[in-house]
UniProtKB/TrEMBL annotation:
Presence of keyword Magnesium: no
Coiled coil: none
MF annotations from Gene Ontology: ATP binding; proton-transporting ATP synthase activity, rotational mechanism; proton-transporting ATPase activity, rotational mechanism
Protein name: V-type ATP synthase subunit D
Organism encoding this protein: Candidatus Gallimonas gallistercoris
NCBIfam families: V_ATPase_subD (TIGR00309)
Gene: atpD
Family (UniProt): Belongs to the V-ATPase D subunit family.
Signal peptide residue numbers: none
Function: Produces ATP from ADP in the presence of a proton gradient across the membrane.
């Protein structure tokens, strides 16, 4: 490891020792942050996996139910039922902080009637159930989008933090330690040389 190009003086030694102390503290803080981010990433990744499996399973059931509904419902009525919105849905996006990282937060608000947008006699119970299943799944779809985006952002931040930790651990801190050791050695050499000169002067005076 190449040492820093500085003058071997006591002033530089003092500055470098202060920098080393700061670097060591920064390394510990970043390492602790990295460990906590990895823990939270693991929790969110598990939630993401479970939620994705749940959503995919429900989507498969919904598609199956749609097929059943279309087979027993007149085509024009099925198309009408599936095309008309039962209510107005508004997704409001904001951010929340996870270890200093802003991740998305999606709030869902719904307006309009709680019922379906057609008369009961116009549609079969199979089609009615299909539409209800889609409506019930929508909040989970939004939550899945929120979690997946957060997981990707956390993964990127963990990687960036890892590079900072490695730069401190394997580059900056060793450089500072080596430079401090070099300055101490040079200062000791200078002190010994000065002592030898003093002793020679005293020897001549005697």
């Amino acid at each position: 490891m190449a040492r820093l190009n500085v003058n071997p003086t006591r002033m530089e030694l003092k500055k470098l020792k202060a920098r080393l102390s700061t670097a060591v503290r920064g390394h510990k803080l970043l390492k602790d942050k990295s460990d906590e981010m990895i823990r939270r990433f693991t929790v969110m990744a598990r939630e993401n996996l479970a939620l994705r499996r749940e959503v995919e399973g429900e989507l498969a059931r919904i598609l199956g139910q749609f097929q059943v509904a279309r087979s027993v419902t007149p085509a024009y009525r099925a198309e009408t039922a599936f095309a008309l919105p039962a209510s107005s849905v508004r997704a409001e996006c904001s951010v929340t902080s996870v270890m200093g990282l802003d991740v998305p937060k999606i709030a869902l608000s719904q307006s309009g009637g709680a019922g379906l947008p057609y008369a009961f006699f116009e549609i079969t119970s199979e089609a009615d159930y299909s539409v209800s299943m889609v409506t019930a799944l929508f909040p989970k779809l939004l939550r899945l989008a929120e979690v997946e985006k957060s997981v990707r952002m956390l993964a990127d931040e963990i990687e960036r933090n890892k590079r900072r930790v490695n730069a401190l651990e394997y580059v900056m801190i060793p450089q500072l330690e080596e430079t401090i050791a070099y300055i101490r050695e040079k200062l000791s050499e200078n002190e010994r040389a000065a002592l030898v000169r003093i002793m020679k002067v005293k020897g001549k005076q005697q």
